[in-house]
Amino acid sequence: MTVILKRLLKFKYPFAKYQRLAAEILNKGTLKPKITSKNYHKYSYSTVKKLVQLIWNKSIEHLGYTGAPDYKLNLYLHYEETRLFNSFEMVKDILASQDIIKNSKPGIENDVLCGNDKTAFAELLKENGFEIDTSFDLSQLDIFDNNAIMFNYAYPLNINGFLQVVKDQPQSFENNEFINRLLWLSEQLNSSEAKQLNIEKLEFIYKKSKVYRNQNGVLLPVELLLLVEGITEEKLLPLFSKIRGLEFIKKGVKLKAAGGKNQVLKLYNLYKNRLKIPILIILDKDAQSIYEQLNQIKRQSDQAFLIPEGEFEDIIPEHLIVRAINEYHKSEITIEPFEIKCEDGMCVILHRLWKEKGYGDFNKSEFADIICENIKVNETLSSTLINITDTINKVLLKKYY
């Protein structure tokens, strides 16, 4: 159960995350018929939801929980996700899934998906077991509004019940940052000032959760998606930014390596409509054409940064590269500063040096690890690295969402 909740809190598009979560619970909790990730799509959403809820809640009872189910925490978690992800896009994806379409009235799905008819959306969702949470006052809110609680489809699990078992039997469960955060949230929601939940109370707890993130280093809630090309940026950029006083986890910066410049564009197109938080894209100089495409299609809240020197390796301080390589190999075969000074790009130079010095085959990931081990807290950074960290801070400070 701890593992399942940990997955529930990962930065992943909610609809896909819930499907995987449901499939995992059903796979572990059913015998006949055996429902797995391969066949659970054959069952209606309402059936899947009821089975998942039944298996989870009965398991909680088996562990010793005897109270009535409490879903206030689910409500807050869903609110947190509607601050992060576009709820209207989530509804579209639900309606576009085969489980919903096959149960809808003939011909209505195309009109709904094309026309964005919110009333028709709501009718289709209700037909398929998605119900508005009646315990929450939605009378003055549009259920598709950016700051509204949408439909109670996300978390059918009695998470609060499980947390009570964890508190009663701490020796039986793994203690990790995700469970600790849920325990903290549960306490906030059960405090006297939060007994009657409304948007203002949820927003108050959301703001407190940012303070909790800063104090405890848990990357929730996320406030910025940082897309980079590869492993070098993924490993080193958080460390260089920390030198400048910007700690990604504490500030809610989610860094994601795309695996190449072409994948960056694909990922941006995937996220730009789904996410409500800003997106910053860091690109190597040879991705100029992609940089120009992004500037044509990007949202107002988003920004693209092109490294003028070339690749990310070209903006790592040269003194750090020399020191790190020599410290790592600790042999008579060292490199001198002049050996990495030429017109060729740093990766070309490093590939050549690795062969000449007998270091083996050059590997970007291993090189990034070598640099990581030798970065000092007072490291002098290149002007471009400083510019990148300043840009991240500026995007964070702009409240477009």
Care to describe what's here?
This protein has 401 residues and is mostly helical. The chain has helices at 2-8, 14-29, 45-62, 72-84, 87-96, 98-101, 108-115, 118-127, 159-168, 177-189, 199-216, 231-243, 248-251, 261-271, 288-297, 318-329, 346-356, 364-374, 383-397; strands at residues 224-228, 253-257, 279-283, 303-306. A four-stranded parallel β-sheet has the order 2-1-3-4, sandwiched between helices. Helix 10 runs antiparallel to helix 11 (199-216) and helix 16 (318-329) crosses helix 18 (364-374). The longest helix is centred in the first third of the chain and has 18 residues, at 45-62. The chain is elongated, with a radius of gyration of 25 Å. Residues 132-153 have low confidence and may be disordered.
Features:
single chain, 401 residues, mainly alpha, 2 domains, 4-stranded parallel beta sheet, 5% strand, elongated
- Largest sheet strand order: 2-1-3-4
Content of β-strand: under 5%
Radius of gyration: 25 Å
Q: Pairing-aware structural class of the strands and helices? A: mainly alpha
Strand elements, count: 4
Oligomeric state of the chains present here: single chain
Largest sheet: 4 strands, parallel
Mean pLDDT: 84
H/E series, N to C? Answer: HHHHHHHHHHHEHHEHEHEHHHH
The number of distinct structural domains comes to 2
Q: Specify the helix fraction band.
A: 40-55%
Question: What distance lies between the first and last C-alpha atoms, to the nearest angstrom?
Answer: 33 Å
Count up the helices.
Answer: 19
